[in-house]
Amino acid sequence: MGHHASPTPACEGGGVTCWFAMSATETDVLRLSNSSASPRQLFASVWECRELITTLARKEFFVRYRRSSLGVLWAAGLPLIQATVLSIVFSRVVRIHTSTSYPVFVFTGMAVWTYFTSTITAGSTSIVDNSGLTNKIYFPRAVLPLVQARANLYGLAINILIVFALAIGFGDGLDAHILILIPATLLLVLLCSAAVLTLSALHVYFRDIRYVVQALFTGLLYLTPVFLPLQRYPSALRHVVLANPATGIVQLFHYAIAGGAADWGHAVLISGAWTVALAIAAVYVHCSRDRVLADLL
Amino acid sequence: MSGSIVVEGVGKQYVKYHDQPMLAHALVRLAARSRTDRLWALRGVDLRIDSGECVGVVGRNGSGKSTLLQLLGGITAPTEGTVTVYGRVAPLISVGVGFHPELTGRDNVFLNGTILGMSRRDIERRFDAIVDFAEIDDFIDTPVKFYSSGMQVRLGFAVAVQADPQVLLVDEVLAVGDFAFQMKCLKRIDEIRTSGASVLLVSHNLSMVERLCRRTVVLHEGTVRYDGPTLEAISTLHALLDDEAQVQAGAVEVVPNVADVTEFAICNGSGTPVNATPTGERLTARVSVAAHRDIERPFVGLTIDGPRGDAIFHQGNRSRPFPPLAAGERRVYEVTWNAQMPTGTYGVRMHLGSIAADDKIAILSEPAPVTLFVQGKLDAHGVIDVEADFAAGD
Question: Hey, which residues does B45 pair with through a beta bridge?
Fold first, then answer.
């Protein structure tokens, strides 16, 4: 009485179905079984969704400021206020010699740090936070953390423009070194993307991740050369600061704005190593878990 | 525009966590190698839906309907077996996915369309058709939070059906929205199906399933119990539900130990028990009674509950009771009636009563109701069928 599908694959089943299989493009055929995707399939499916990432990122950025009367100005205003307060405090309490004026130094570091923390805080919980989407429709779950890495680029761009303005305003000037910002930003985005891809998938299984990340960030700011140049840290602490994945990137940014001695090589290698390790973890976890993450939401 | 679905030997197992999995627990579990509770939401499901077919999926809550939809929508992967879906899928599992209340209708159309897999150019091309279908042109630049819930649903549905889906997965979404819009949606779904898409309709609304699908699958406890013509499928589902109702029967206060109803069924003209019937059929409600004591004036009552659960008809033979029954005697009582009703699911109840010497009435037995699906006339709605005829005058 029952209608049962023949066990032959659709295309050998012949007839009508075969025609669809050939007429539909490969992206329109969905095959699901209990097996992992290959890294190539993962990259291809995320690449397919690039427009979705942009749309969601734009929404993310603009919705954040939609209800406030000053709107997007807050994206620049908030870090500016933060940097002013911090540079006043630090220049009064400790006398620090930096290769640029101190506010420019602090603000450059803060620009990187703001991107780093806001991307990782929002990104690592993004799959769970968007369960309203992930429970209803499929797209690679990697899209959601990547949206955060993309959305925060708007803020980073604004902050870098403020850095330029400050550097000129304080009489430090800018030179060809600013070209370093291109690879520096690239490394920053790659590092943060790899971190949030890994963390967001783990966070589906272990909701503690949210608090672990928050706890880490409270201390990590002081172990990142945002207020102090690396050389000014006590030698015992310097190794810890060097192990921090953000350090190399902050140093690259400082070098791009202020020039000076190219002493960032070591730290950048460490940032790079973190990026590679996290990227491998991210690809592994998304290849094997992509389709089943929704089960736990 | 063509799509099809092939499901082969599919099973989906879920891990039942008693609580949120925590890092500490995971480490303990890893050390102890203890197993967590597992649950098969679906097992051994084979299904093939061709282009141009509209297949209904029915079953009670927890039968695996949602899991099947999630698998076909690619939201989750099967634990065993394979699912293959040819063509672009539009899951109408929940319309307006990703709508943001602060954004305008226009922004949300682009957002939702992109989530559904349309490119920006696709959406721009269909934008007017979407707004037109949703009937909200004056509000398109208003934030969605100012929309009524009906407007939000209309807009969400409009985006989904304008995406030219080749596979349409329809959940209970059609339950919302006003009647006129529902009809418009059904019409659009049928257009999409006719153009070669395959449609899967999951619903508790059996009249809608009956209206749209010629073929229906009954899921029960994660397996396919029936797959075939819709009326038969609905009958199978009701038989399954009645089995469970029987277990839970006994809600009415009855005088015990006087008589039992050993069997209660609704039979068609050829004497076969049925759970579904075309309208206008002459049916027989039959109870088999076993008396344990003498019953002076036995009678039966027939009650029909409408689709909303309220009794729409009752009649008994209290005024003209049956001849007396002696202790130990068995008898069959029959009530023959016309199932002249619009489409819907009805509950048919019978009770056995007796009238004592002082004319007091006692209910002796009330078996669990039998569910009956009536396939009514086309375009007939309501509680009764007045056998309307339509004619044009001169």
Answer: B10
CB contact under 8 A, A32 and B84: yes
The string of pLDDT tens digits covering residues B1-39 is 578 899 999 999 887 665 555 566 666 655 554 455 678
Cβ–Cβ below 8 Å for A17 and B74: no
Q: Are A21 and B245 in contact (CB under 8 A)?
A: no
Three-class SS state of A24:
coil
Interface contact flag, B115 A16, Cβ < 8 Å:
no
Q: Is any Cβ of chain B less than 8 angstroms from the Cβ of A21?
A: yes
Q: Are A199 and A148 in contact (CB under 8 A)?
A: no
Nearest to A44 by CA among A158, A142, A183: A142
Q: Is the dihedral of CA B235, B237, B241, B243 positive or negative?
A: positive
3-state SS assignment for residue A171: coil
Instruction: Kindly give, in sequence order, each residue whose CB lies less than 8 Å from that of residue A235, ignoring residues fewer than 6 positions away.
Output: none
Mean pLDDT by 10 residues, chain B (394 residues): 84 71 60 63 92 91 87 89 88 74 89 86 91 88 88 86 84 69 83 89 83 90 91 86 60 73 91 90 93 91 84 85 92 93 89 83 86 87 85 85
Kindly calculate the radius of gyration of chain B based on its CA atoms and give it in whole angstroms: 26
Q: pLDDT tens, A125-139?
A: 999 998 888 888 888
Q: How many CA atoms lie within 13 A of B387 on its CB side?
A: 4
CA neighbor of B97 nearest in space, from A155, A56, A216, A100: A56
The runs of H, that is alpha helices, within chain B are 23-32, 65-72, 105-115, 120-134, 149-161, 179-194, 206-212, 230-248
Closest Cβ–Cβ partner in A55, A137, A296 for B73: A137
CA distance to A18, A42, B230, B373, B385, per residue, from B379 (Å): 38, 49, 18, 16, 11
| List of residues 6+ apart from A151 with CB closer than 8 A | A56, A57, A58, A60, A61
> What is chain A's Cα-based Rg?
23
Q: What is the dihedral of CA A41, B65, B160, A133, to 10 degrees?
A: -60
